[in-house]
Design a protein that fits this description.
Blueprint lengths: L1 H13 L11 H16 L3 E5 L5 H11 L15 E8 L6 H15 L7 E8 L15 H6 L16 E6 L5 H4 L3 E5 L4 H6 L3 H14 L7 H18 L5 H11 L9 H6 L19 H10 L11 E5 L4 H9 L5 E5 L10 H9 L2 E5 L9 H5 L3 E3 L2 E8 L2 E7 L4 E7 H7 L2 H6 L1 E4 L8 H17 L6 H4 L6 H4 L7 H13 L7 H9 L2
Parallel strand pairs: 1-4, 1-5, 2-3, 3-4, 6-12, 6-13, 7-8, 8-12
Antiparallel strand pairs: 9-10, 10-11
Length: 514
Amino acid sequence: MQEEISRCQDVFLAELELPPNIARNSALKENIFMMVVCIELRIPLFLVGKPGSSKSLAKSIVADAMQGDAAHSELFKNFKQVYMISFQCSPLSTPDGIVGTFKQCSRFQEGKDLNRFVSVVVLDEVGLAEDSPRMPLKTLHPLLETGSEEDEDSPAAHKKVGFVGLSNWALDPAKMNRGILVGICAGDPVQDLIEPLIPSLAKAYLSLYKNQKREFFGLRDYYSLIKMVYSFSSKSDRSPTHLEIEHSVRRNFGGLLGAEDPMRHFEKYMQMTALAEATPDDLDCSPAGLLQASLQGHATGEGESRYLLVLTENYAALPILRQQLLSQQDAIIIFGSSFPYDQEYTQIKVCMETGRTVVLLNLENLYESLYDALNQYYVKLFGQRYVDLGLGTHRVKCRVHNDFRLIVIADKDVVYERFPTPLINRLEKHFLATSTMLTMDQREIVTQLEQWVKKFATIVLPAYKMDNYKFAISDAFVGYHDDTLASLVYQICCEMGQAEGNDEWKYMVRWCLC
């Protein structure tokens, strides 16, 4: 079917008299073909593409070619004669201007043979009219369906005119769904750089997806991975390095404990020789570096990354975030409860509008009200971004500041067992406990301390007394848990500093337990 359509497009292009300086590329070929077909059948058409993608050129060529019996080509003599009326859209456009253009077109069709003549409304730069406070594009809905702005059951045949909308960006789906959309993708040199990696990344993701016990990772994580890899290549104008791939994988496929290391899994499917060599500018792939990059919006095409879901144990992530990552940011922490006021999103709304970072804990009943915000698909008006908050019919529009960031902190078991899959998929996931923030040297000290603690809490008794006498580490050290020693080492290192070659912090750690 695709080959048949391509041959038809070639026939159309061969019948045209084009100047020698016009390239007969695929974009021009597709634009002309779709424009001729849709005009002939009076089907609304939207051509969307970047400047220079042959939209206006195709319009001029078609207007010159479709002259009915006066056409230069024998092929185009079989098509209708076309009469185009262009309307240049802008932020100052009004509904009356667009309606008037449709009425003018319909008057040209009145009294003519509609099988041989068609008037066409061409809205040029139609996307600019979206910024008009008078919302002129709302009038397109009935005009594209029936040709009349009134709700007529059977409007006169001459009122149904052809329509072509030219835009540099996609419009509201409510408008584009009333016609045929042709998206024109210009050649992308960055895509050529990452295209060899995409099959391997896709296979690795598919394998990971099929082998997980529940849908912890989904398509949103994969798409975010591709966008991040694309962004790295776009900024450097080269294929991504190994560390850039690792950074992207760990950013989008982290947070799942007990599973295979995500980077090791992806390496099974990738040819690492296809990657560029490491550079001094590569981002940090440590847990702290990944979180810091996410909060600062690194490695995304528009400087914006997904909001964060931080899995933790005993809420250890909260003091770490406050101490290491949020100290330089204007952050507010909201800890929910069963009280009615704590189930409202008023505070979150204020943070969105003012650009503050908000950290949410224990607010499971509220997260579903934020789904539209977590999608990060905003309605833009006068340069501002807006999103809906709420559930059901109780929804409010909220302005979203460019600096707004959202972090959800939750116990890992709660996330694995109770968080809904749509919520998990929308967020960038990381596991953060005190132990994950330690260096290799610090972890070695923690291991030594664990051995010492076990010896300290071991009581040697005759075998006949051991069955009735149980003594745990928490009996010797009140409040002891799995993260206690790591927290102790981490806190002392932060307070004293860990200069290279300075072992004073090690003696301080041992002194705290003596």
